[in-house]
Each structure stands twice: as C-alpha cells, then as structure tokens.
Design goal:
Layout lengths: L2 E5 L3 H12 L3 E6 L2 H7 L5 E4 L5 H7 L6 E4 L5 H13 L4 E5 L3 H9 L4 E3 L1 H14 L3 E6 L4 E6 L10 H4 L1 H5 L2 E7 L4 E4 L11 E8 H4 L4
Parallel strand pairs: 1-2, 1-4, 2-3, 4-5, 5-6
Antiparallel strand pairs: 7-8, 8-11, 9-10, 9-11
C-alpha cells in the first residue's frame, strides 16, 4: 500500500490527505493545530499533533524514502524550506510542496522539492482555458506545445465514427482514449469505426492552439 505523509493541514493539505485516504492510501497527517488533527482522525491512518519543522519528531515518525511527502504551509516559506531540506536529507524521493508564487517555487526546487504546485495559478489557468475553449474539461501539459486534453464532443461529433470525424487531418489531434462517463469505463486506443455517443469524453493529444479550433 502506498503511504503519503501530509505535513500541514490547511484547506489544501486536509483535502489532499482525506482524498488519498478515501482512495486506498495509507496517510500520516501532521499538524500542530489540535482542532485540525481531531478533524482529520477519521480520514487518515495516523494523525500526529506535532510541529513539522521539528526534526526529531519527523525522525520518530520515520518517513521512508519511498513515501510521498506533501508539504502545505501556505506562505510560510521558512517552514516549507526547512522541512523540504530535512526530507531531502532523509532521501525521500517524492517531495511535493505547495507554494504561493513562482519566487517561492524556485527556492523550494533549489533545496530539493521534486514537485512544487501553485494551486491558485493552476485553478486560474484551468478556468481561463474552460472559458476560451468550453469543450475542454481538463488537461495535462506534456511539453511547451503538446497536452493531453479531456474534450466534451460537440453535437456535430455525436453519432459519427472517428474515421468520419478525421480529427487528425482536420485539427492535428489524436484520440488516445474515450471515457464513458455513465458506465465509468475507458476505451483505450479506440478503432476508427468507434461511434462517438452522448455521455462520452474524448481523451486527445495535441497542441493547445489546435484544440482551440474545436467548438
């Protein structure tokens, strides 16, 4: 079973810990706020009332190198940096840190964070993309140019096969899967004769500028 250690249980940390626990992870939740620890007890394997910057306490908890460490301290860069350094010394391979801005992100990456996220920026980008391209439900950046998108098919796509739609020729995008929302099933690498139906989502790979052509 995968184990995640969540240090700092603000809104972001609490919901990360709870969601991971509800999806089968072993979760160790750490915070110095007693009320928050009481709240997370039912949604964690172990809830620890402690200061995450205390190196001795962190050593006692025994975070392994294969654990996933998630640090969420709002704008407290000093605390996030100290914990990141300590985890790096403990040879933890996966250190995910929440940061408030790009400046903090650069510092945390320098001291050993393997992934730094800025939730407000990510949400803002997703909201903007949903307004620019209403069909785009979600996306995963692969490079500066290419992304994987979840695309709600326009009405003009429904009832047609992938061969008829000719998405590669018309939009320079490739369908790599189709997710049936109702049946909660994913068709991987669908054939050209696959008929697109209502209630399905296309998972496609392509450039952002090409995805924007689909309305």
């Amino acid at each position: 079973m995968k184990r995640a250690v969540v240090i700092g249980l603000g809104i972001f940390g609490y919901h990360i810990a709870r969601t991971l626990f509800e999806n089968g992870f072993e979760v160790v939740a750490i915070d110095k706020n007693k009320d928050v620890i009481q709240k997370i007890r039912d949604y964690s394997t172990k809830a620890v009332l402690a200061d995450g910057t205390d190196q001795e306490i962190m050593d006692e908890i025994g975070i392994g190198e294969d654990d996933i460490a998630i640090i969420s301290f709002g704008e407290d860069l000093a605390a996030a940096t100290l914990i990141t350094l300590h985890l790096k010394q403990m040879k933890v391979k996966n250190i995910i840190v929440k940061a408030p801005n790009e400046d903090h992100k650069l510092i945390l990456e320098k001291v050993g964070a393997t992934d730094v996220i800025i939730p407000e920026m990510d949400v803002a980008k997703k909201l903007a993309k949903s307004l620019i391209s209403p069909n785009v439900m979600d996306y995963i950046p692969l490079s500066d140019d290419y992304m994987i998108f979840e695309l709600a098919p326009p009405n003009s796509f429904l009832g047609k096969t992938l061969a008829q739609l000719q998405l590669r020729n018309r939009f320079n995008i490739e369908v790599i899967a189709i997710r049936d929302v109702i049946a909660d099933h994913v068709h991987m690498v669908p054939h050209a004769d696959f008929v697109v139906k209502d209630g399905e989502v296309l998972v496609v790979i392509g450039k952002e500028k090409d995805i924007g052509k689909i309305k």
